[in-house]
Write a structure and sequence with these properties.
- The protein has helices at 15-20, 49-63, 88-107, 117-123, 126-130, 146-154, 202-206, 214-226, 255-263, 283-291, 308-313, 320-334, 353-366, 383-387, 394-419; strands at 28-29, 39-45, 67-69, 78-83, 112-116, 136-138, 159-161, 184-188, 190-191, 210-211, 231-235, 243-245, 252-254, 270-274, 298-300, 339-346, 370-375, 423-431, 438-442, 448-452, 461-469, 473-478.
- The protein folds into 3 domains: 5-161, Methylthiotransferase, N-terminal domain (Rossmann fold, 3-Layer(aba) Sandwich); 184-419, Alpha-Beta Horseshoe (pyruvate-formate lyase- activating enzyme), CATH 3.80.30; 423-478, OB fold (Dihydrolipoamide Acetyltransferase, E2P), CATH 2.40.50.
- Residues 1-26 have low confidence and may be disordered.
- Helices cover 34% and strands 22% of the residues.
- The longest helix has 26 residues, at 394-419.
- 48% of the residues are buried.
- The two termini are 26 Å apart.
- By secondary structure, it is of the alpha/beta class.
- The protein is built from 15 helices and 22 strands.
- It is globular.
- The chain binds S-adenosyl-L-homocysteine (SAH), iron/sulfur cluster (SF4) and FE3-S4 cluster.
- Iron/sulfur cluster binds next to helix 7.
- It is found in: Cytoplasm.
- [4Fe-4S] cluster 2 binds at residues 193, 197, 200.
- [4Fe-4S] cluster 1 binds at residues 48, 84, 118.
Length: 480
C-alpha cells in the first residue's frame, strides 16, 4: 500500500484510481467463485474497509441465493456497486462508473444494477430517479433483504430498502473472502458510529454504533486460522468504543479484552485493528498491545487537525493537548518504534493560516509514519453543512493540503530511515508489484517491505534486514 494517498487532489486519474479516491483503499472487483450456480454477481466496492468487508457478506448472502461471483462484468446478471459518500468526489466517481456500466446494460438489458452502501443510504430512492439504470437501492443494514429485493426486480419492479438498524451486525453470516491473498482478512467487529464529527456523513449513512458478539468474532478468527490466514484486521469506525455484553449480562467485553481474546487465538496470527479514536483509546488497550507479540505495534489515530479551536468546530471532542497526551502514552508504553498514522483534513470551515500551521507542527511533533490527507468537502446534512460556512477557498484548501502532504513525505522518509540497518519480521503477502523475483509484505508497523524472494513464499514470516528505503517502502534481504 502506497502510504501517502491523496487522490482527491489528483485529477488525471484512471477510473480505478478515481474509485480509490473514495477513500484510502483500492477498488476491488470480485473474484470468481465458479461453483456452477445459474446466475452471476459482479460487485465493486468503494470507500473504506468496512465496505470491502460488507461486500464479502453480500456475496455470501447472494451465493446462498444462487449467484456465483464473477470478475467479468460482461458475464454478470447482477451488478452491485458498494458505494461511499465520505467526500463529494467519492460520489462523483460512482456516478461516472454508472455511466460506464450503462454501456454494458445496453448490450445486455436484462442485467440488474444495484447501488449498495453509503450512497444508497444517503440518497435513498432519489437515486432511482437520478440514475435511470439503477434497479435496486440498498442501505448497509438491509443486506439480508437482498434476495427479496432482487426477486422484486426479477418481477419487473424497482426496489429500495434503506432501513437502518440498531442491532444488525451480520454476526452469523460467513463472509465469502473476495480478492483475498489468503494471508490477511478483515473482521468487522462493530457497525455504525455514535460520534458526530461535524464534517462526517458516516453517522447518517451507517446509523447507530453497535458491537458484534465477541464469540462470533473469535470464531471467525479461528476459522481464518484453520484456513491458513496469518493476519486479521479488526474493523470499526471507532474500535476503542467496542462494548459487548452477553444477553444475561454475565459477560462484558471491551476493546482491550476483545483484542486479547483474538490475540490468544494463535500466536502465529497477527492482529491489527482500525480505526482508533483519540478520545477513546485507553492505556489498557496499549498495555494489551504490549503484552502480546502478535498484536501489531501500529495505531491509526486520526488527528484531523492540530488546532484546538478547529477540533472543537469539528466536534472531535478532544483538543491538541489531549491528542499529544495519547501520543506520549503510546511512545511511553509501546516505545518509539510503534507505528502511528493519521487522517488530516485541510481547509475546514474558518481555518486560519495559523491554525493550519498547528496541523503542520503537530505532524512535526508526532512524526507520523504516514497519513491519509484530504481537503474538506462539505457533505449535505452534516452538522458543519448546517451550521458552518465552507469559507476556505478551494485554491487555499489545495495549497494547505499540499503543504500537509509535503510535511508527511518528509516525516515518512525520516521514520523509514530509522528502520534501515535493522531486522524486521515481515509477513509475506504477495509478489512485489514490479517483479516476481521479489516478495512484498509488511512489518509489524504496517510498512511495506520488499526483498528478493529466494525460497520464501506468500504467508511466510521472514526476518528481513532492511538496507534501504524510499518515502513509502523499505527494501532489504532475508536473513536465514
Ligand atoms: N472513523 C474514522 C474516520 C472514517 S472516515 C475516524 O474517526 O477517524 C475517513 C476519513 O475521511 C476521516 O478520518 C477524515 O479525515 C476524512 N473525511 C471524513 N469526512 C470528510 C469530509 N467531509 N471532507 C474531507 N475529508 C473527510
Ligand atoms: Fe465520522 Fe467521526 Fe464517526 Fe469517524 S468518529 S466515522 S469521523 S463521525
Ligand atoms: Fe465511505 Fe461509508 Fe466508509 S461513507 S468511508 S464507505 S462508512
Amino acid at each position: 500500500m502506497e502510504p501517502i494517498v491523496d487522490l482527491d487532489f489528483i485529477d488525471n486519474r484512471t477510473p480505478e484510481q478515481a474509485a480509490a479516491a473514495a477513500n484510502s483503499c483500492d477498488t476491488k472487483v470480485t473474484e470468481e467463485t465458479n461453483t456452477g450456480k445459474s446466475r452471476k454477481l459482479y460487485i465493486e466496492s468503494y470507500g473504506c474497509q468496512m465496505n470491502f468487508s460488507d461486500s464479502e457478506i453480500v456475496s455470501s448472502i447472494m451465493f446462498d441465493q444462487g449467484f456465483d461471483t464473477t470478475s467479468d462484468i460482461e458475464q454478470a446478471d447482477l451488478v452491485f456497486l458498494n458505494t461511499c459518500s465520505i467526500r463529494e468526489k467519492a460520489e462523483q466517481t460512482v456516478r461516472n462508473r454508472l455511466g460506464q456500466i450503462n454501456y454494458y446494460k445496453k448490450k445486455k438489458p436484462e442485467m440488474m444494477v444495484g447501488i449498495l452502501g453509503c450512497m444508497a443510504e444517503r440518497l435513498k430512492k432519489s437515486l432511482l430517479e437520478e440514475e435511470k439504470i439503477v434497479d435496486l437501492v440498498v442501505g448497509p443494514d438491509a443486506y439480508r433483504d437482498l434476495p427479496n429485493l432482487v426477486n422484486h426486480v426479477d418481477g419487473g419492479q424497482k426496489a429500495v430498502n434503506v432501513l437502518l438498524s440498531r442491532e444488525e451486525t451480520y454476526a452469523d453470516i460467513n463472509p465469502i473472502r473476495l480478492n483475498s491473498n489468503g494471508v490477511s482478512a478483515f473482521i468487522s467487529i462493530m457497525r455504525g458510529c455514535d460520534n458526530m464529527c461535524s464534517f462526517c456523513v458516516v453517522p447518517f449513512t451507517r446509523g447507530r454504533e453497535r458491537s458484534r458478539d465477541a464469540h462470533s468474532i473469535v470464531r471467525e478468527a479461528e476459522a481464518l486460522v484453520a484456513q491458513g490466514y496469518k493476519e486479521v484486521t479488526l474493523l470499526g469506525q471507532n474500535v476503542d468504543s467496542y462494548k459487548w455484553a452477553s444477553e444475561d449480562g454475565s459477560e462484558n467485553v471491551n476493546f482491550a479484552q476483545l483484542l486479547e481474546k483474538v490475540a490468544l487465538v494463535s500466536p502465529d496470527l497477527r492482529v491489527r485493528f482500525s480505526t482508533s479514536h483519540p478520545k477513546d483509546i485507553t492505556d489498557e488497550v496499549l498495555y494489551t498491545m504490549k503484552k502480546y507479540d502478535n498484536i501489531c505495534k501500529y495505531i491509526h489515530l486520526p488527528a484531523q487537525s492540530g488546532n484546538s479551536r478547529v477540533l472543537e468546530l469539528m466536534n472531535r471532542t478532544y483538543d491538541r493537548d489531549w491528542y499529544i497526551n495519547r501520543v506520549d502514552a503510546i511512545r511511553r508504553i509501546l516505545g518509539e518504534d510503534c507505528g502511528i498514522s493519521s487522517d488530516m483534513i485541510a481547509g475546514f470551515c474558518s481555518e486560519t493560516e495559523e491554525e493550519h500551521q498547528d496541523t503542520l507542527s503537530l505532524m512535526d511533533y508526532v512524526q507520523y509514519d504516514y497519513s491519509y490527507m484530504f481537503f474538506y468537502s462539505e457533505r449535505p446534512g452534516t452538522l458543519a453543512a448546517r451550521k458552518l460556512e465552507d469559507d476556505v477557498p478551494l485554491e487555499v484548501k489545495k495549497r494547505r493540503l499540499q503543504e500537509i502532504i509535503d510535511k508527511q513525505r518528509e516525516t515518512s522518509h525520516n521514520r523509514n530511515k530509522r528502520d534501515v540497518g535493522k531486522v524486521h519480521k515481515v509477513l509475506v503477502e504477495n509478489f512485489s508489484k514490479k517483479s516476481d523475483e521479489f516478495l512484498s509484505g509488511r512489518n509489524d508497523q504496517n510498512k511495506v517491505v520488499i526483498f528478493p524472494k529466494k525460497h520464501y513464499k506468500k504467508g511466510d514470516y521472514v526476518n528481513v534486514f532492511v538496507n534501504d528505503c524510499s518515502v513509502g517502502t523499505l527494501f532489504g534481504e532475508a536473513v536465514d
